[in-house]
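Same chain as my last thread, 310 residues:
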Amino acid sequence: MTAPSIATHLLTRVYGSQTALKDVTLSVEPGSVYALVGPNGAGKTTLIQLIMNLQAPTSGAAEILGLPSTRIRGGVLNRIGYISETQEMPDSMTVAAFLNYLRPFYPTWDHALEKQLLADFALPPTRELRHLSRGMRMKAAFASTLSYRPEVLILDEPFSGLDPLVRDELIQGLLDRIGETTIFLSSHDLAEIESFASHIGYLEQGTLIFSEEMVALSNRFRQVEFRSHESATPPANLPESWLEIEQSGSHVRFKDSAFTTQERLIAHIRTIFSGATEMAFEPLSLRSIFLANARTHRNTRAQSDRGAAK
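reply #2:
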């Protein structure tokens, strides 16, 4: 059995009285593209920094390429790439000087690939990094990392604040690496992620709500609409897997997060809404799945807070 490229076990990070990450356990298969999504403040950057040994966990453990994250230093960094939205680079260097400086540190540096990336990203070799736009700086960061063909590439919000053309160019650079490099990224660009991610993890307030293959996630979510004879509010005690339930007159709509087959769901609906008709089932985009989960957890927290206040 092949060992995971990245793995965490009950990974937790606490700052004083605030828990930023709680008991996160996940596994990232070699060659996969694992996208970590969640609201702002969910703990995505904290998780990445723990994996990269940029912070120490309060408890639990993380591994990269079979090594404990606490041992990620020295030569093993030749096998790992890391890019963040706040990437720091030597601003006084030109693009060419920056790449020339890095090249000797990486035995796997691919000169032909470096040349190709410079052309694909239209990077000006003689321009100083401080004179590049944010998009061009991110391209330089990608070129400097992809050129040594890392076995694992970790990206923290790499597309944040970039225009669509730059995002597309960077994503194409990643697509060209799929299969040879394990990619682990956090991002808010859900539409772009959906086009190439193989696995999705959803973080909410430091807790990993789900972690699964993109295909499985898409298959288990459906937008459901139907007509009911009961023109009233939805009954109480509906299945927990039915999210964002709405009823307007006889029209009922919800998102099913545990869809298996239409036949099974139709039978389930009719045990609750007798005589339900005109049923329709539609797949959901990753953005819609994200929003449904985020709103549901936000409403659950609000109800819990109100209950605690009484």
